[in-house]
Amino acid sequence: MRASLRPSDPAASPAVERVNAELFTLTYGAIVRQLLTDYEEIDEVNKQLDTMGYNIGARLVDDFLAKANITKCTDFRETADVIAKVGFKMFLNVTATVANWSSDNMECSLILDDNPLVDFVELPETCQGLSYCNILCGVLRGALEMVSMRTEVKFVKDMLRGDDAFEIRLKLLEHVPEEYPYKNDE
Amino acid sequence: MIGVGRAKHNLNVVDSPLGKGKSEVSLSAFAFLFSELVQYNQGKVENIAELEEAGFGVGIQILELLCHREKANRRETRVLGILSFVHSTVADSLEKGTEHEDEYMISEKELLVNKFVSVPASMGGFNCGTFVAGIVKGVLDGAGFPASVTAHFVAVEGQTRSRTTILVKFAEEVVQRDAPLA
C-alpha cells in the first residue's frame, strides 16, 4: 500500500507516482459493494457510478493535461488516440486501442483487453444488469466536457458479461464553445 | 473435424491464477477514486462507520490475497506476528501502548489516503485514515484477532501536517489467548 516514486523515464514525464493496483481494485470493489447495498435498483447504481465518474473526470483532466506534455488535439480522432494511448496508460497502466470509426468521424470504440478495475471480479446472477466499470464512462464524459466536448459514452462489450474484451463506444455530440462567466464590457 | 470448437471462456474467477501482483496504477487514479468514496459517504448520516466498513471489506480480501501469495498458506497465530505483517504493508512504525496491555499503535508520517485531503475545521476529528483503520481491522479480524481499530491525528512538532496513528485495541480473548504463548 506504499506509493513508490519511480525515477522519471522518457516515456512518462514527470515521474508519475504509482500505487499497488490491487489496492485500487479492492477499493473500487468496496465502492460498488456499498452502492449495491444502498440502492435497490441496478440502474440506479449504474447511474451513480456514472455520476461519480463524471466528478472524477472533471478533475482528472487537469491532472492529465498537467502531466501529459502533449500538444493541443486538432480533431476528435486525435483526441481519441491520446485518450487511448496516453490517458489510459498514465492512470490505469493499460493501453486501449481505437477502432470502429464511424463515417463522419464522430464515433469510435476504445477497446481494452486488460482492465485493472475488474481483477478478481465476477458478477452474480442477481446483478447481471450491472455495468461494473461504468465509472470509466463517467470519467471520459466528465473529462471531455471540461475540454468543451459533449459526448455520450457507454460500454458495448463487457468481459464480466461474457464478451471477450471491454469496448467503450465514444460518441461526440457537439463542441461547446467556451463561455466566459463575465462580460468584457461590464 | 468433429469436436473442434472454441472453448467458451467460462473460467470461474477463483480458478484463474492469482497473478504476481506487481501491476500498478497511478497514485492520482487511486486518490480520485478515494475522494469520490469519501464524498459519497459525506451525503449520509453515518459517515465514519461506512468508510470503516468499506475498508473492512478490503482488509479481508487483502489478507487472503497476501497470505496465499507471500506466506504460502501459513497462518499467523501470534499477536506480534500478525502486527508485523500489518505493519510491513501499511506503515512506518509500530509501538506498544503504555497505558493498556492490549493496545498497539501503528503510525505513518503521510498516510497515502490523507495525502491529498484537507479536513475543514467544521468536520472536527474526521480522518480519512479511518479507511486504512478499516483495512487493518479487516486483516486482523480475518486472521482471527478481533480488535477495535481507530485512526487519530497526532500533532508533531516541527511539521505542519500531523502524523496519523492507527490505534489497535485487541479484544479480551486475544490477549488472554496470547499471554501463555509468550
From TrEMBL, chain A:
Q: Which SUPFAM superfamilies is this protein grouped with?
A: Ligand-binding domain in the NO signalling and Golgi transport
GO BP annotations, alphabetical order:
endoplasmic reticulum to Golgi vesicle-mediated transport; intra-Golgi vesicle-mediated transport
Superkingdom of source: Eukaryota
Asked if the record carries the keyword Ubl conjugation, the reply is no
**Gene3D superfamilies linked:** Trafficking protein particle complex subunit 3
Primary site of residence: endoplasmic reticulum
Binding partners and assembly: Homodimer.
Cited function: May play a role in vesicular transport from endoplasmic reticulum to Golgi.
**Protein name, UniProt field:** Trafficking protein particle complex subunit
Task: Say which species the protein is native to.
Answer: Physcomitrium patens
Automatic annotation (TrEMBL), chain B:
Q: State the oligomer form and interacting partners.
A: Part of the multisubunit TRAPP (transport protein particle) complex.
Natural source organism: Physcomitrium patens (Spreading-leaved earth moss)
**Which family does this protein fall into?**
Belongs to the TRAPP small subunits family. BET3 subfamily.
Q: GO annotations under biological process?
A: Golgi vesicle transport
Quote a single Gene Ontology cellular component term: Golgi apparatus
Extract the PANTHER family matched here. Answer: 41-2 PROTEIN ANTIGEN-RELATED (PTHR20902), TRAFFICKING PROTEIN PARTICLE COMPLEX SUBUNIT 5 (PTHR20902:SF0)
Q: Where in the cell is it found?
A: Endoplasmic reticulum; Golgi apparatus, cis-Golgi network
Using the UniProt record, give the first listed, main subcellular location. endoplasmic reticulum
State the UniProt keywords alphabetically: Endoplasmic reticulum, ER-Golgi transport, Golgi apparatus, Transport
Q: Can the keyword Endoplasmic reticulum be found in this entry's annotation?
A: yes
- State whether keyword Endoplasmic reticulum applies: yes
Return the protein name: Trafficking protein particle complex subunit
